[in-house]
Amino acid sequence: MPTARVNGIEMYYEARGQGEPLLLLHGGMGIGADWQHVFPSDPPGYQVIVPDLRGHGRSTNPEGTFTFKRCATDILALLDRLEVRGVKAIGMSMGAKTLLHVATAQPDRVDAMVLVSAAPYFPEALRHAAAQFTRESFARLSTSERDALRRRHAGGDEQIRQLYDMTRGFATSYDDLSFTPPLLGTITARTLIVHGDRDPYYPVELALELFRGIPRSALWVVAYGAHGPIFGPMAGPFAAAALAHLSGPAPRPVDA
Fold first, then answer.
1. SS3 letters for 22-79?
2. Topology, domain 3-125+177-247
3. 59-72 pLDDT, tens per residue?
4. Does the pLDDT value for residue 1 go beyond 80?
5. Which of 8, 101, 109, 229 has the CA that lies 20 to 30 A from 76?
């Protein structure tokens, strides 16, 4: 198993293929292998870099705490370890928020990116949903639901409980996800924002805030799309649009 020691954790990752580096970051409670549901085979012309984020899958998190900012420093350290200076990237939910931190901390590291179900801050709908992720709620899951999580996360029940703690912490987190328009304005990456108009956690207005704040951005609102509207029947259309954006010309900035 390829792992890298970064920021006090063992990060599991896979790096496959030849070409431009393409970083794929999964969503919360997910794993890097989830991208196989979007890209059944790796996109040609890219070296695909697919990590399990801190505390997820086969990556460790000895401290037991999580922030998106810390997750971004993990990714930057991994890229340094792999001697990858610049990347194109796709992030889903947690992965997209991590990319926002990467793209504002070191703008020159990201040439182009796709943000799926991202947000500049946590809205009340998400805070309410996150507060329900208690250890007791994990214990109330059915055997099949718990077994599905155990197959994804190598550390077993204690790792999953920590992921529940992580998610519950979003309910009271205010400084980790706080992307103001001036901060978003420092992003230089060509950015495609993908958002479902039926997302129960992040109202579509938040996607508009990202679109208005990121200078070189385009917006795709998925009709009838829920949170993470890139799987199932949408996987093919999303993969085509994402790859076209990553390889295509820069959109013209929106006039203020």
1. EEEECCCCCCHHHHHHCCCCCCCCEEEEEECCCCCCCCCCCCCCCCHHHHHHHHHHHH
2. Rossmann fold (3.40.50)
3. 999 999 899 999 99
4. no
5. 229
